[in-house]
């Protein structure tokens, strides 16, 4: 029964009077809301504290039940996502998505995790929540979207053909993969999603970005553990075999579910349409959360009995292993691309096979899956890049001036023409320009450009998308121009430079070709500003300030009234071209010295960086005697320096198409910003990329600095990601001790390094830093500056730090952790130290 009330106008106000019965009912309702709020609020806070000490990356707003009811009162639009309903509403004239749950899940966990991931473009952004209902209600930022499951499987869906090109599917897979990688790597302990499936993904119809939603079944791994045993949960068909059999969850559990999602994206069929249905497997079937997994064995010793798996898993595994890719691929993909992309489809299916291996140990990690998907997506665009460079000179192809690669999708800049699309000219009603398209002008000129595609390249190129939308008519001269899809062109570095001297011309050609080759190998070319030799000479003419960094000199100067750092190299054997290419890709990171541009007209290329008022970590802070700056390097700041450098190395190892190994990590490659305290790494001239699909590369000779070189590299010339981990471990040790590696070790005639006798006399016959680290007491070797400030109160954090240095400098590469795990541990240490200091 709805409450009744009377209204009275008193002056300019309206008073509402309820009868006593209604007041009691309202009071009871408010009490219930309050109880729900307290119960749900404590649960959400508990989850937030467990995840991130209660701090949200994105602040979330609290909404009352009245606000939620008012927001959705007149809404008729909703989106069904398996177990939840998304209702479109209005909150303060702002469109939102309000989520209601059909079943009782751990919604508090969902709120806590989404709050930590809402800054990601591929996670549906959380605005706030309401805790006054029995089950909390979540409020998201509004997106005009459609669920991936509806897009893939819903019959008669008009959006399907236009939205699900092969390029779009690769992007969806990559978007989801990057969100899962964040879950696995960016929290203090990895979080396992446990319910990755197509109904948990929304496609933004405007920008095409895939956004993942619902983390209610996720679970964190215990600190230092690689797996956790819990009751099996998820959706049948997507659940990994080991989770189904024993409740074991690892990072590889999510990889299996993601592999099934990859398969569905390829085939356009639901998992239940692929496998034969049996009585035990129904589309709506779930594993009940309250059931006992039936296995109490220690998780590390659990053996999954694959013979007793449900029939559906056996059928699905057989289907994936035996299928011909052209037989199972969605016909929409084949209609658009034909057999031209058969090789890429086969590569994609191979990735599906790896992800859905029945044994978890045989599956790759998500970070490697994401990297492979990025490579595929990049490869898919390569053909269009090559075509555009050959066709922009034609008068009947809309001329491409350039492009911007800094957005998610490449933005193309065309020469301006006042034009109208052929589609609008032919089919738009009441179009006054339609009569101007006489019969003689209709498609003759378009045909000539198609002939060019078919005849003027080494191999004929098929356009595959000739339609009125892709043809533009210039308004004044009625010239027909063909707008080919996905075409890009860009200019080479230094294209407009006027070279006045022959030597400068030769240097520019030599250096320019080297830099361009490196940029293309890394990233298809990222534009950076080009400076002439005259500009550089003028900039440094009156400069007296410089910073020496062992092999390079940074000169402070100004250009166009902008302060800059100009870098000159002392030695010619550095691969400066590689350095330019890698730095250009990493300049958006706060912990990499930002590259503005370069000059290629000197014998050795000159690099121009953004100015920072800084001091070097090696000479000015750690190792320089009587340095006035040294006291500023307290323990908290040293942890921050270590974390900053680690995150830059993690980027090198994980964010490129193939991992890049730095090979020369040491304090002289790090400068500290005086104002912000951020550590910035520079100089990637010795870096090397691993071959595609390989975990190591054999070098021709050893590069790097004695004392920092990993044993396997020095002895066998083997380079892996663990090579950098060793060098970084030495850097960690130096941050702890405040000693240079050469103060700990002395050179002998055969270049071996042995401990200095005055530093450690109880370790006989020690030959490397590794032995020194393992034999010394942390309080005996720690920098006195740290002890003067903190005393023995931080003995345990120092021991934990030394343990990490020990792991990083293990003799065998396999015994060292990956940099991503090192970075995560340093973040935990820094966080713990700062919380104790408050």
Automatic annotation (TrEMBL):
InterPro entries: Kinase-like_dom_sf, Prot_kinase_dom, WAK-like. Residues 45-380, 485-833 form the Protein kinase domain. One of its GO terms (molecular function) is ATP binding. One of its GO terms (cellular component) is plasma membrane. It comes from Solanum lycopersicum (Tomato). It comes from the Eukaryota. Pfam families: Pkinase. This is Protein kinase domain-containing protein. Keywords: ATP-binding, Nucleotide-binding. The keyword Ion transport does not apply.
